Hints:
Elements: E1 9-10, H1 12-18, E2 23-26, H2 30-34, E3 42-43, H3 49-52, E4 62-65, H4 70-81, E5 87-90, H5 93-99
Parallel strand pairs: 1-5, 2-3, 2-4, 4-5
InterPro entries: GlpE_sulfurtransferase (IPR050229), Rhodanese-like_dom (IPR001763), Rhodanese-like_dom_sf (IPR036873)
Pfam family, one: Rhodanese
Domain Rhodanese: 18-106
Amino acid sequence: MFGAYGIKEVDVEFLHERKDDIHLIDVRTESEVAAGVINGAIHIPLHLLPLKAGEIPQDKPVVIYCRSGARSAQACAFMQQKGYNNMHNLSGGIAAWARAGKPIASLS
């Protein structure tokens, strides 16, 4: 599925079913992440993405998420401009994940 600007998107069910087959990146702020994450996510705040882009693996699909899907769509667009073609945005972000009753993990 494609979202705005040709960004590839996945929904909550796709992520839930395939979570072990992807790299998951959380681009929210420190304070947002402190409230909980999707288990297995790597935290790279959006403002640090240009510095850490090279650390994102390319050996399997990458799903990027934020609170609602807007910042993660920006992150996907940025990464695509850098030549990464394995980026996917989580449609609706962690808010959609939580609304679907999926687990939110604590960082502690």
